[in-house]
Amino acid sequence: MASFATFHLAGSHPLRSPFPTPTMTVLRPPSRSLSLSFPSLNAVETKADPSVATTEFDFKGFLLKKAESVNRALDLAIPLIHPKRIHEAMRYSLLAGGKRIRPVLCIAACEIVGGDEAQSIPPACAVEMIHTMSLIHDDLPCMDDDDLRRGKPSCHRAFGESVAVLAGDALLALAFEHLVDLRNYPSSIAIAPAILVRATAELARCIGTEGLVAGQLLDMESTGLEDPVDIDRLEFIHLHKTAALLEASVVIGALVGGGSDSEVERLRRYAQCIGLLFQVVDDILDVTKSSQELGKTAAKDLASNKTTYPKLLGLEKSREFADKLLRDAKSQIEGFDSSKAAPLLHLANYIAYRQN
């Protein structure tokens, strides 16, 4: 089991980057465990990260404000037009709530490199549309077969399988249209077409056969096996299925915000760390929380004999691994302006200590 101590972002995450990414080795996690009880969303870990300003950052207020901006934009992006039923299904899943972590990451990445919220809203909406598409398709009987999503019946349970498939397809197409349509951006801010082309390629790559699709396929093929998959295969699955879209969210936010190549790549590595962290924590919550607390079916991975980090490493080692990933993510945003880095620091904490 000791092999999980070495985590090579560049080696085990073959998503192509236009820039060289140095190998990052995560050392064996310390013996202390990561407690998943998070007392306050506003807690500031100034001792753990001296690069962050000591003044308190209202993370809860930040998260709510950014999520509200995204929700308003998403509501406007999908009006109830003909054919009404497909747009109802799209809106049902897209506006069903959720933490909006990916679009908020996109906005925060844009702002940390000097951009502002207004220019990051279109890509933020695009990644949330794609995320919702992945949830709709993931819940289908031919995939993970889940009847509950965000505390409500899954899209296919509410609208039928065929409409759910089409709703996901439509959201995927709309995401790219929304990303590149210059009318969605403030007229006062000129977004270079080359930047939008690069952002589109980044997003497409992270959700295709080098990203989300690859992870989903291997996840399905690894479910129900008599013997659990090894740690390298599990890492590959989650770096692609979960981390890739988080990576795209951060990278395209930094691109539209005018980030330099070096800034974009540092933020890419930050996103890879929190992406894997997100899945480790998700696996832990699956075996420690109820369906009511999670808003989705609890212990489903255990019931389907799916390999998870707690199953492979044990609960305590999984918590230690999460702790290490959190610290490595924070190290990538050292050197940025502390006030602008505060949202990404707290987003990493939020992902690590979330309860659902």
Automatic annotation (TrEMBL):
Phylogenetic lineage: Eukaryota, Viridiplantae, Streptophyta, Embryophyta, Tracheophyta
Cofactor(s) needed: Mg(2+)
Source organism superkingdom: Eukaryota
Pathway it works in: Isoprenoid biosynthesis
InterPro entries from the UniProt entry: Isoprenoid_synthase_dom_sf (IPR008949), Polyprenyl_synt (IPR000092), Polyprenyl_synt_CS (IPR033749), Prenyl_diphosphate_synthase (IPR053378)
Protein name: Geranyl diphosphate synthase large subunit
Species per Swiss-Prot/TrEMBL record: Phalaenopsis equestris (Moth orchid)
GO cellular component: cytoplasm
One example of a Gene Ontology biological process annotation: isoprenoid biosynthetic process
Family: Belongs to the FPP/GGPP synthase family.
Cross-referenced Gene3D superfamilies: Farnesyl Diphosphate Synthase (1.10.600.10)
Keyword Transferase: yes
